[in-house]
Amino acid sequence: MRPVYAVSGGVSKFAKARPDKTFPALVKEAYDYAIDDLGLTHRQFLEIVDGSVASYFSDHFARQLMAAIMAQDYLGLCPKPSHRVEGGGATGGICFQEAWKAVASGYMDVCLAYGFETMSHVATWKGNEFIALASDVSFDYPVGGFYSGYYAMMVTRHMKEFGTTPEQMAHVSVKNHMNAYHNPYAQKRQKLTIADVRNAPMVAWPLTRLDICVMSDGAAATILCSEDGLAKLEKAGGRRIPRVRVTGIGRGTDAMRMADRPHQSYDDFLKYNLLPIEDTAETRTYYQNLWARGFRYPGVHSFRAGRMASKEAYKNAGVTDPAGEIDFVELHDAYTSSEIQTYEDMGLCRYGEGGFFASTGQAFMPTVDYGLDLPEEPVCPVNPSGGLIACGHPVGATGLMQAVFAIWQLQHTIDKHFGDATLQVPDAQRGAIHSHAGTGTYVTVSILEKED
Fold it and tell me: What's the pLDDT score for residue 142?
């Protein structure tokens, strides 16, 4: 496969509602930013780009079948090749990886990946109903299945298994909202305390309103290219583009219904799930003790698809110690609890240690004052952008939003794009983006690296 570079990106302003623009115009807002950052005009880019991949989650929100072709036409990309992808909350992450495939395979030299969602056309309760259709409509949905309920159930199991506390979850909310305070694209830029999070209206115990992401209108776009495509873009733009290479991708899946997810034996857990850094006598003893206390994997406290996606991406990128070798992660924090669960799935800490990892400061930015007494120094900042909880979650755009922020981090241009250098991860060399659907049915992980 050929090397693939992620060279530029753009994000529209995420908001509760964007009545000023239709969804094709929102896509163009992100697209225009991305090509302008390359120093190109629209006409110049159209002469170079080979095609695109489009990302949106729900025809219900768009109120339009085949909505992606309308965005394709609006951007002037017809009749160049394109297709739409959909995979629940992981739609944007899948889109990014499909664009990677188009370039890595040699099918394209320059590929545009764009995504959008306009969720404001319906009331919040109706939007939650649409999202709940991404659960099993024959079994779970008819008996009141909805996503905040699913995640509340998962985290209460996590609390029982590992002693995780609501206050540890609140640390995630404080962190991500405070990060977003410095991000002009974010929907919710707030300074919060642990008490603010816990005293917010309860949605599904122990999840309060400030533990949960919000529906949004927004779009994001990234440009991926081969070495030949990079040369074309640089020649047209008249300048060198900072190299960010996509060095590894991974995907995982799991059953739609959590009740259909079988428990593995202890031996199979060790055989199929340990990361290289975990394959030690000490960690095997740690998991043996958990198993003796009743721990089973995957259960409803962990996302097996997230572990599989992470393992594959790490293998492809040559990562053996995620927390030690990855400088930051933009992950799918639809809930504070799912961020904690994902710390464990991605191997930033061991299963059972996610709550501790959250509350000690290891996932925090070293450049932000959170107003918290954090006992440890940051190890691997998670969601320096503010994540879904604070930036918003226009589903088809979200995974691409993560990619855009990761590109800017690795190009060391956060100050340029945000007008504020606070969120620049110091000397960032390698980052990961993680996109997640349903209760962990589709998960993507992609590794991006700065290349001199």
Answer: 83
Phi, psi of 377 (to 5 degrees): -80, 155
For the stretch 268-325, pLDDT in tens is 999 999 999 999 999 999 999 999 998 999 989 999 999 999 999 999 999 999 999 9
Segment 428-445, tens digit of pLDDT: 999 999 999 999 999 999
In 3-state terms, what secondary structure has residue 217? strand
- Residue 113: name the closest of 352, 338, 404 by CA: 404
Measured in residues, the chain has a length of: 452
Closest CA to 88 of 437, 399, 335, 402: 437
> Which stretches of 274-303 are DSSP H helices?
281-292
pLDDT at 135: 86
Cβ pair 49, 226 in contact under 8 A: no
pLDDT at 143 over 90: no
pLDDT, mean of residues 142-153? 88
| Ordered DSSP codes for 25-92 | HHHHHHHHHHHHHTT--HHHHHHH--EEEEE-S-HHHHTSTTHHHHHHHHTT-TTS-EEEE-BTBTHH
Q: Do residues 90 and 442 lie in contact, with contact meaning Cβ atoms separated by under 8 Å?
A: yes
Q: What span, in angstroms and rounded, lies between the C-alpha atoms of 305 and 285?
A: 24
Do 365 and 381 contact (CB within 8 A), yes or no?
yes
Q: What residues contact residue 144 under an 8 Å CB cut-off, 6+ apart?
A: none
Structural domains for the chain: 5-122+215-244 (3.40.47.10), 249-451 (3.40.47.10)
DSSP secondary structure, 68-82, as one string? HHHHHHHTT-TTS-E
Measured CA to CA, the distance from residue 235 to residue 221 in angstroms comes to 22
How would residue 133 be classed by pLDDT, with cut points 50, 70 and 90?
confident
Closest CA to 182 of 367, 402, 379: 367
Half-sphere exposure (Cβ direction) of 406: Cα atoms closer than 13 Å: 36
| CB within 8 Å of 421: residues ≥ 6 apart | 367, 414, 415
- pLDDT over 90 at 125, yes or no: no
- Taking the mean position of all CA atoms in its chain, how far away is CA 183? 16
pLDDT at 262: 87
- Report the distance separating Cα 135 and Cα 140, nearest Å: 7
DSSP H helical ranges for 304-394? 304-317, 322-325, 336-345, 354-360, 387-391
Of the pLDDT bands very low, low, confident and very high (cuts 50, 70, 90), residue 115 is very high
| Residue 201 tokens, joined | 């209206």
